[in-house]
């Protein structure tokens, strides 16, 4: 698609802009949903019926009434009380000792990722990430001129042996390796959780080759089996920047995320963030702060984890029954199952046909890959879809696969 027009003198960075493939699909799904019922496995969101909206409404009513400055700006880096709550949260839930000076509140993890791109990436810099990886980070950092280098993922997460070999090769070729980006828990779209050994290995690699790692922790709190420490827990040298988000447990629309980093990074991020947004929305900062301070987070998270684990199991059983020959993971965390179709078909064509013919929406995984290896893979979300629609949707997915075989 051509985004440039000769009539406008856009900045050179616009040359790097690609339209988000997922946004295009989402628009199509919503257009079709307006005319007929669609079973959607395409989301990356929590179930609206699991989010305690009534509780939020009570808390919001209170904070708007009680806090005289609830509708004024907060400091750019976030309300001091929320930064303190997040620092406590990092210790309690992640085993990371930090202080409010190292925490900066953002508009979702998305803004933290964008600010880090703005802060670190010069055109031509290399960024190493998982292949596949989160498409919005890829699009966002390519906008700053990043050259993305992918490293394969298996059931244990990114292959760190291979990652080290890639780092060595790039450095020996004289390339600038600016960042390593990883989604260790509940990977989007691969659905896998990185093993503890690989987490430690990745932190060692960062230390050995003097690299900075951005750890995207968006799904760290949706874990169904086992428990995992973030990379930041193993980092003793300030080489890991933790990007956190309350989206996936408390609600994507609240738009509260944060980054936890050295005070040096926090200070510069603060300076570049202020002119663009002044601060994250204050009523939402106050809401999240009260949820944390009043000890409500535990119960909200517990309910979400129980509900999504059940839905995951329903989807796994339906896949086992109706979709033979496909390769897919059993996610121990996150929201997604990545499925390699047993037929040689372009996943974008497949997703289109499934939506048109059977009114079932899935996300083609192709745009999440840096090469052609995801050509026939699709991403299935199991958290937002209604539990009683899962079997029907998967049955139809199986039908289309058989028709194409
Ligand atoms: C891997 C990953 N990182 C970050 C985000 C950003 O989420 P938010 O900006 O809502 O925190 C998402 C959302 O889908 C995601 O999947």
TrEMBL record:
InterPro entries: Aminotransferase_I/II_large, Class-I_PLP-dep_aminotransf, PyrdxlP-dep_Trfase, PyrdxlP-dep_Trfase_major, PyrdxlP-dep_Trfase_small. It comes from the Archaea. One of its GO terms (molecular function) is transaminase activity. SUPFAM superfamilies: PLP-dependent transferases (SSF53383). Keywords: Aminotransferase, Pyridoxal phosphate, Transferase. GO terms for biological process: alpha-amino acid metabolic process. It holds the Pfam family Aminotran_1_2. Belongs to the class-I pyridoxal-phosphate-dependent aminotransferase family. Homodimer. This is Aminotransferase. It comes from Thermogladius calderae (strain DSM 22663 / VKM B-2946 / 1633). The lineage of its organism: Archaea, Thermoproteota, Thermoprotei, Desulfurococcales, Desulfurococcaceae.
